[in-house]
């Protein structure tokens, strides 16, 4: 608005500077001339969703609770991680671990599994033991509730889907420098181009690095990201996509308070306090690769095949504080204990093929989706080294180094392999302009076993999905859905007597 007004004033002054003959009104604005001022209110509204079986489907036609956080909103808020992006969605919190090391999100009171509930571009299971960066992401989507039809075995909390940036019609050359009040500082570049005689090749490159300072005293580190998104429009019918990203994060472990110690406290602990030794490590390395091919058969029928690999390594030193006794709470006398896992390795292998299209019968248009997917999760054997508990005062941060701890016993946690195979079909029937009927089913074949041959378990099941969407007005909709889903019993967590054991039920 101000630009237009300044330009108009400059033009008036320039015209007024010339000598005009009497009666010549060329240098003056007519009193009855309209001055048109235009403006645009920024909007972060999104019209379509891409998570799960919803292929660019209208939000009003989607019979699920889906929150979409677009790039414009992420930039406006200066978001640098999933935790900041998901603050825009109600009912999502963090628990179990410190957000300075990893993100354990809870949706509707149910934990999102770090190995099954996070997806890249709607498909590949990424491993959220290393915080997922968003500098190279175009949008973040959260599908709340059960999602078994498309995603198979996962906790019924929600699916977080991150969508990568891709090359567009406009060239991209962006340099970003950011920081925060804690002292963190980072910089990144974003480069995008359409190349080729007909712009058939697309390249989008992102790189980012930062020094991390946290609100917890003495806890800092660094992280970096390098990624590329590549597109090739081979012909009018065939399109290929490839996404590659690698990111690392290295910070100190802040430590925690045991439940027994927390119950003895009468006040909220200092949120800036550190309980772990100096330089107690929390290190992660992650690499994700996803390739996709789309082929248009005829009309609106198409075939999609995609395959991907997600790997992650982690080094973690646990430190839990406990009071010597209830009588020492006032003085703060206590001890820390825990273990160190020098190498935790995880790998997810992903494969999916599906056919989509529409047919019309008796005036009803059916959008059909038929597919098969296979996710193979591998967790390698893990050696955990326990250390002798060390004296510590609750009110004074430990000054001794992690390297000075005395390690005693080493325990082997057997690795595991989980294979989730599914065959699914979905029909979305458009009955007139206001009514949608949705029905589908997935055949689940699930196998899990420890790498040492113990704990083998197999399960098969049908998981149906049904729904009705009614649109009383063009800008509103009401829906009812029925969804069944399955989740793995999981692996016994750290600190339990059967730590690392796969539970069969």
For the structure shown, list the relevant keywords.
505 residues; mainly beta; 17-stranded mixed sheet; globular
Description:
The longest helix is centred in the N-terminal third of the chain and has 15 residues, at 2-16. The chain has one domain: Maltoporin, Chain A (Beta Barrel). The chain has helices at residues 2-16, 71-77, 82-85, 148-151, 259-264, and strands at 48-49, 57-58, 66-70, 92-94, 105-107, 110-111, 118-120, 124-125, 137-144, 158-164, 172-179, 185-195, 201-213, 220-233, 238-252, 256-257, 281-298, 301-317, 320-323, 333-361, 364-379, 382-393, 407-413, 416-431, 435-450, 457-473, 476-483. It is globular and about 80 Å long. The protein is mainly beta and 505 residues long.
Brief summary of the model shown:
The chain contains 5 helices and 27 strands. The protein has helices spanning 2-16, 71-77, 82-85, 148-151, 259-264; strands at residues 48-49, 57-58, 66-70, 92-94, 105-107, 110-111, 118-120, 124-125, 137-144, 158-164, 172-179, 185-195, 201-213, 220-233, 238-252, 256-257, 281-298, 301-317, 320-323, 333-361, 364-379, 382-393, 407-413, 416-431, 435-450, 457-473, 476-483. Residues 1-26 have low confidence and may be disordered.
């Amino acid at each position: 608005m101000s630009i237009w007004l300044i330009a108009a004033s400059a033009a008036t002054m320039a015209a007024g500077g010339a000598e005009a003959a009497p009666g010549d009104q060329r240098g003056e604005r007519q009193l009855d001339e309209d001055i048109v001022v235009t403006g645009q209110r920024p909007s972060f509204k999104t019209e379509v969703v891409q998570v799960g079986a919803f292929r660019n489907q209208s939000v009003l036609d989607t019979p699920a609770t889906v929150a979409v956080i677009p790039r414009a909103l992420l930039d406006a808020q200066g978001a640098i991680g999933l935790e900041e992006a998901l603050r825009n969605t109600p009912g999502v919190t963090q628990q179990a671990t410190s957000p300075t090391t990893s993100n354990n999100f809870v949706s509707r009171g149910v934990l999102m599994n770090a190995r099954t509930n996070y997806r890249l571009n709607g498909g590949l299971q990424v491993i959220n033991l290393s915080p997922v960066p968003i500098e190279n992401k175009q949008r973040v989507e959260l599908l709340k509730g059960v999602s078994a039809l498309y995603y198979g075995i996962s906790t019924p909390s929600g699916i977080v889907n991150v969508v990568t940036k891709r090359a567009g019609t406009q060239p991209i050359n962006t340099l970003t420098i950011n920081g925060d009040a804690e002292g963190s500082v980072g910089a990144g570049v974003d480069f995008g181009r359409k190349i080729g005689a007909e712009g058939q090749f697309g390249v989008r490159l992102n790189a980012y690095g930062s020094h991390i300072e946290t609100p917890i005293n003495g806890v800092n580190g660094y992280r970096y990201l390098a990624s590329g998104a590549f597109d090739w429009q081979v012909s009018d019918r065939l399109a290929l996509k490839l996404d590659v990203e690698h990111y690392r994060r290295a910070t100190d472990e802040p430590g925690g308070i045991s439940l027994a110690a927390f119950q003895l406290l009468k006040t909220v602990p200092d949120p800036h306090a550190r309980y772990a030794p100096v330089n107690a490590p929390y290190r992660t390395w992650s690499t994700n690769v996803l390739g996709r091919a789309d082929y248009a058969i005829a009309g609106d029928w198409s075939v999609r095949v995609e395959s991907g690999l997600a790997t992650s390594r982690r080094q973690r030193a646990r430190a839990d504080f406990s009071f010597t006794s209830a009588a020492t709470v006032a003085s703060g006398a206590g001890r820390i204990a825990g273990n160190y896992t020098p190498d935790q390795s995880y790998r997810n292998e992903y494969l999916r093929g599906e056919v989509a299209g529409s047919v019309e019968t008796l005036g009803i248009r059916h959008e059909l989706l038929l597919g098969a997917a296979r996710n193979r999760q591998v967790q390698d054997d893990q050696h955990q080294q326990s250390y002798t508990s060390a004296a510590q005062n609750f009110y004074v941060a430990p000054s001794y180094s992690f390297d000075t701890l005395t390690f005693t016993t080493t325990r082997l946690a057997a690795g595991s392999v989980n294979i989730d195979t599914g065959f699914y079909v979905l029909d979305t029937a458009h009955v007139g302009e206001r009514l949608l009927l949705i029905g589908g089913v997935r055949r689940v074949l699930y196998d899990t076993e420890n790498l040492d041959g113990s704990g083998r378990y197999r399960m098969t099941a049908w998981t149906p999905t049904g729904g009705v969407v009614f649109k009383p007005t063009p800008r509103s909709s009401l829906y009812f859905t029925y969804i069944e889903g399955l989740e793995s019993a999981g692996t016994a967590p750290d600190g339990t007597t059967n730590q690392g054991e796969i539970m069969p039920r």
